[in-house]
Amino acid sequence: MEQRIDRIEKLIEELAESRKSDRALIERHDKILANLELNQIIMGKAIVGIEKSVEGIEKSVSGIREDIGRMARAMNDFIDAVGFKFKDHEERINKLEGK
User: Fold this and answer.
1) Residue-wise over 52-89: b if at least 16 C-beta within 10 A, else e?
2) What single-letter DSSP state applies at residue 98?
3) I need a surface site. Which of 1, 18, 31, 81 has the fewest CB within 10 A?
4) Could you report the per-residue pLDDT of 3-32, keeping only the tens digit for each?
5) pTM given for the model
6) How far is C-alpha 73 from the geometric centre of its chain's CA atoms?
7) Where are the alpha helices (DSSP H) in 1-98?
């Protein structure tokens, strides 16, 4: 009878140890899930930040394109004006030289 009681006590102790181990596993699992959720939140915020940065870059690039277009038109106008003046000046020189 005493051996039987000892075996029962031993089984109870093993069960208690097993439950401690189970609790530790559950706590570890909960911590892992919490970390994963936190990582998802951080990644979500990072993605939103990146999207906003990309939008800002796209606006900047669009502004640069517009500026380059304006500069190209101004340069074209300048070249046309200089070319016209040069042609007019060349004609005057030819007239003066009698060509």
Assistant:
1) eeeeeeeeeeeeeeeeeeeeeeeeeeeeeeeeeeeeee
2) T
3) 1
4) 888 888 888 888 888 888 888 888 999 999
5) 0.46
6) 35
7) 2-97
